[in-house]
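Example for tutorial group B:
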């Protein structure tokens, strides 16, 4: 992937939330005294959401560049998976509630894996956020785990729009990264999936995707199991 194309994608995805941010803040500056409380709340909420999108994109970009240059901290220790999943699901509730999406933690409380806490949280945040993004109103997103002996496999499953066979093979290829909108016009580039793959591989695991258009998607990744 050329640097120009990569920068073009980033510029496109930054432009949309910045346009919303500038437009809404301009309305507040110019018409503050004329706005009702409900209008002020609506504009403020829009500014907040735009800022979150920008922050997430920049955060993912900075992390990705650190991974590519080998400048990333790695502290693998035994972690309780259910607890970590629950913490990440809690942070995902706000976006899920906007589309009345139910989140489920079905990870066995006894499962532990040897992993870096920050990396695991980032992987889960990106996969769960992606699942919510492409799930329709009143859908479901669940996190499960399977004991494979020396490995634990964690899966994030949704019943959303699914992925075509053609696009399935492009998910983790940087040269194929494209901007895409979610079911509620959410923005994103797919950089979160690239980061997730890199973080899984750094920890000695693998990541895979199963999907059917209009039926949903399951993204699974493995981590070394903690032998008690």
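The residue assignment follows.
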């Amino acid at each position: 992937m050329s640097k120009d194309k990569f920068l073009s994608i980033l510029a496109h995805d930054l432009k949309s939330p910045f346009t919303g941010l500038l437009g809404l803040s301009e309305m507040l500056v110019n018409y503050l005294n004329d706005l009702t409380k409900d209008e002020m709340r609506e504009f403020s909420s829009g500014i907040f959401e735009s800022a979150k999108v920008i922050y997430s994109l920049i955060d993912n970009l900075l992390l990705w560049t650190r991974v590519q240059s080998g400048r990333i901290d790695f502290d693998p220790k035994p972690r309780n998976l259910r607890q970590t999943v629950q913490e990440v699901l809690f942070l995902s509730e706000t976006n899920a509630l906007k589309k009345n999406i139910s989140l489920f933690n079905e990870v066995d409380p006894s499962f532990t894996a040897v992993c870096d806490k920050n990396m695991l949280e980032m992987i889960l945040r990106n996969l769960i956020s992606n699942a919510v993004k492409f799930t329709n109103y009143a859908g479901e997103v669940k996190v499960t785990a399977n004991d494979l002996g020396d490995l634990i496999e964690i899966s994030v499953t949704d019943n959303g729009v699914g992925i075509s066979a053609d696009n399935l093979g492009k998910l983790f290829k940087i040269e194929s990264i494209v901007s895409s909108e979610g079911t509620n016009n959410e923005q994103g580039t797919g950089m979160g999936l690239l980061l997730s793959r890199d973080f899984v591989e750094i920890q000695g695991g693998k990541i895979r995707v199963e999907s059917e258009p209009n039926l949903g998607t399951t993204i699974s990744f493995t981590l070394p199991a903690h032998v008690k």
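The domain at 3-69 is CATH 1.10.287.130 (Helix Hairpins). Compare this with the pattern of hydrophobic and polar residues in the output above.
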